[in-house]
């Protein structure tokens, strides 16, 4: 029995979680950015994930199960309109005195960030466990 497929699935999960963490951290860091090189306020970015089937590597009833490996389909910009805040003295204010701010809910984004961080940690723990199991199984096989 090989644990390569489960470890590949967990590695895909770690990569997806890492990108989510980086993207969410960027959103939080730019929550007050009113001017970007593209013009206008920063636009929230979101990670789009999909799953690919990975055939099972178990020679038992578990073989009928299909592993799902996460894959990043892309990072997209949110197309929601910006928050308009009345600040007539702001250098980016329009003619009516409104400033366009990113439409980012920092509290919700921070919650998503904590979730993505914990998901990454859980995948690391699972990879370590799978490697330990593989090592112990190979010791048993060499002793037999």
Topology:
Elements: H1 4-29, E1 45-55, E2 66-77, E3 83-86, E4 98-101, H2 106-143
Antiparallel strand pairs: 1-2, 3-4
Helix pairs in contact: 1-2
Q: What features would you describe in this structure?
A:
The protein contains 2 helices and 4 strands; from the N terminus they run αββββα. By secondary structure, the protein is an alpha+beta fold. The protein has one domain (4-143). The strands form 2 sheets. It has a two-stranded antiparallel sheet. The radius of gyration is 22 Å and the shape is elongated.
- SS-based class: alpha+beta
Helix content: 40-55%
Written as H for each helix and E for each strand, in order along the chain, the element string is HEEEEH
Number of continuous helical runs: 2
Number of domains: 1
- Strand percentage lies at 15-25%
Unreliable runs, pLDDT <50, ≥5 residues? none
Largest sheet, described in full? Answer: 2 strands, antiparallel
- The whole-number mean of residue pLDDT values reads 88
Distance between the termini: 16 Å
What's the shape? elongated
Overall radius of gyration: 22 Å
How many E-type strands? Answer: 4
């Amino acid at each position: 029995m090989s644990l390569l497929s489960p470890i590949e699935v967990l590695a895909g999960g770690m990569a997806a979680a890492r990108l989510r963490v980086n993207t969410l951290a960027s959103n939080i860091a730019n929550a007050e950015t009113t001017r970007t090189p593209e013009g206008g306020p920063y636009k929230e970015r979101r990670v789009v994930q999909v799953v690919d089937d990975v055939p099972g590597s178990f020679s038992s009833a578990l073989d009928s199960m299909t592993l799902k490996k996460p894959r990043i389909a892309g990072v997209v910009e949110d197309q929601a309109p910006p928050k308009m805040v009345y600040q007539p003295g702001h250098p980016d204010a329009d003619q009516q005195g409104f400033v366009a701010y990113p439409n980012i809910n920092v509290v919700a984004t921070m919650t998503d960030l904590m979730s993505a961080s914990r998901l990454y940690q859980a995948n690391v723990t699972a990879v370590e466990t799978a490697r330990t199991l593989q090592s112990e199984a190979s010791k048993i096989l060499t002793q037999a």
